[in-house]
């Protein structure tokens, strides 16, 4: 086995963030250098507390957690308690953490880590609004060439928006940060709603987690049950889109996904379509192809990967 891939997970937990973090911590293919938290699903104090709780649940108090930006670069913060509940991790009663966050700010940690490791060896995995990443690129433009890859959950094209008719939540909350990221020239792989809406949980999968009956699988079952209620009510059908673990699953088993290398630009000015990811899917412009935009997933392979890993924690 080669050396584990070094990653920083930037996150706004959120039930699906929690599953993504647990998947990463369970993988021998990944070396989670640290978690950086950002305001998003719930305010920063809660996303940060939730990140600590998740590491505690996984028995990984060795993973450093750094708090980042408490509001987007330009707009007021928009949160999503209607989806994630007041705590951001409704559905499982996780123990309070027995360890604290690092003193260093998340943005400084991201810059320092990228400068401190060989160029092209650290991958950034943003699972929430891109505020921390955008701020880091603004503060230290030199890191753009040092980032191995940015694999993010965000955006939507054929699937359209989930927080407005035009925009997906992570990009909508901080479109200015997203614009900085998509124009930075880094290698970017995007997990938009186009693919995450095909990564739907099922009753059978949740029941399987409960039958494994470990603290982690029981917590994930509870979190997913809670998270599902919103999407089932909104979209009908069964199952909730497990958005954020797609980012980590891609790093572990990339052939679960397929997509297209296209130009993606971010709407930042329009009131109506703020945060829209405008993907030139049919190549009708000569704009640079700056992102691998995923559109398909092997849904069963994805959930098998999740079960295989989560049961080991
Ligand atoms: O739109 C889905 C995204 O917004 C996910 O990352 C979810 O956790 C929320 O942050
Ligand atoms: Ca998230």
Walk me through what this model shows.
This protein has one domain: Ribonucleoside hydrolase-like (Inosine-uridine Nucleoside N-ribohydrolase, Chain A, Alpha-Beta Complex). It is built from twelve helices and ten strands. The strands form two sheets. An eight-stranded mixed β-sheet has the order 3-2-1-4-5-6-10-7, sandwiched between helices. Strand 4, helix 5 and strand 5 form a beta-alpha-beta unit. Helix 4 crosses helix 5, helix 5 packs across helix 7 and helix 9 packs antiparallel against helix 10. The radius of gyration is 18 Å and the shape is globular. It starts with a strand and ends with a helix. The structure holds alpha-D-ribofuranose and calcium ion.
- Ligands: alpha-D-ribofuranose, calcium ion
* SSE series: EHEHEHHEHEHHEHHHHEEEEH
- Main beta sheet strand tally, sense and closure: 8 strands, mixed
Percent helix, as a range, is 25-40%
CATH level 3 topology: Inosine-uridine Nucleoside N-ribohydrolase, Chain A
- Largest sheet: spatial strand order: 3-2-1-4-5-6-10-7
Q: Look at the structure and give the mean pLDDT.
A: 96
So what's the CATH class? Alpha Beta
The CATH architecture: Alpha-Beta Complex
Distance between the termini: 20 Å
* Beta-strand fraction estimate: 15-25%
How many strands appear in the DSSP assignment? 10
Estimate nothing, just give the exact number of structural domains: 1
Q: How many helices does DSSP assign?
A: 12
Name the poorly predicted regions: none
